[in-house]
Amino acid sequence: MSAAGGSVAQLSRLLALIPWLLARPGVTVDAAAAEFGVTPHQLERDLELAFMCGLPGHMPNDLIEVDFEGGRIHVGNADTIARPLRLGVDEAVALLVGLRALTDVPGLHDREALEATLVKLEQAAGDAAGPGDRVAVAVDPAAPVTPLVEQALAQQRRLHLRYYVPARDEVTERDVDPMRLVVVDGRTYLEGWCRSADAVRLFRVDRIEAADVLDVAAEVPRQAHARDLDDGLFRPAPEDLLVVVDLAPGASWVADTYPTESVVEAADGRLRVALRVADPAWVTRLLLRLGDSARVVEPDSLRADLAARAAAALAAY
Q1: Does pTM top 0.90 for this prediction?
Q2: Which of 50, 81, 152, 165 sits most deeply, having the most CB atoms within 10 A of its CB?
Q3: Based on the number of CB atoms within 10 Å of its own CB, is 163 exposed (0-12), middle (13-18) or buried (19 or more)?
């Protein structure tokens, strides 16, 4: 089946087609097909489907009536969809939030078209929601190195980065072949092929302390693919350390905040949580912060390390 005949495309076309035909009784099949960019045969198939559409009940008076004998189209019993679909206020606001965030993405192309769309959408949403309702989206301001990152992306050049790694509280230096800039939860990240790790990595742009565009072409390997960020930034790997922790009710937020392998609730309300950890130092700091609200079940090495760090912290006092 062609793309024009796909079920999703056909449904979208019907939702616009019926109101259009109601406003133009007697229009020819050829003229309607040309307006919607389909063949007359495809349009007739759409109209045949319209016979089976209408209000719940499926009685004769509930269904749309269509007559296109003789090459001219007449539609009846379709008053419920006589007007094109419009966005509701909540839908318009959600769309505005997404578009507002998009305008702050560094290196965005077609910014003028996006801003023109925003103006029209704000006017439409303002009429429905009232003049006092407007949408503002807060996105972190661009970091000083952003222009250099954008330059490297545009010129397809390698970057040398000085990058702060909070998990280890250290600044690292590495060469990166940039792939794209992305915004996740209001923060901008550089995704690229890290030549030190020999893998795709994400770098939070505001943690890049310095960047130099090298006179070397970026060479992203064929096996490198942009990460799917729909489920968040962190994607546990099978080789990551498996940590099992018992959490008191006051620390149950950990299970909601971080990706987990499993969560089991005990009779006393405690949670036994299993999660994969790429950086043991990170989970150690988390557990120290939780104090007696968390107890390590496994691995033994983490439990021993945690006890040693807690003893050292107490000795410091």
Answers
A1: no
A2: 152
A3: buried
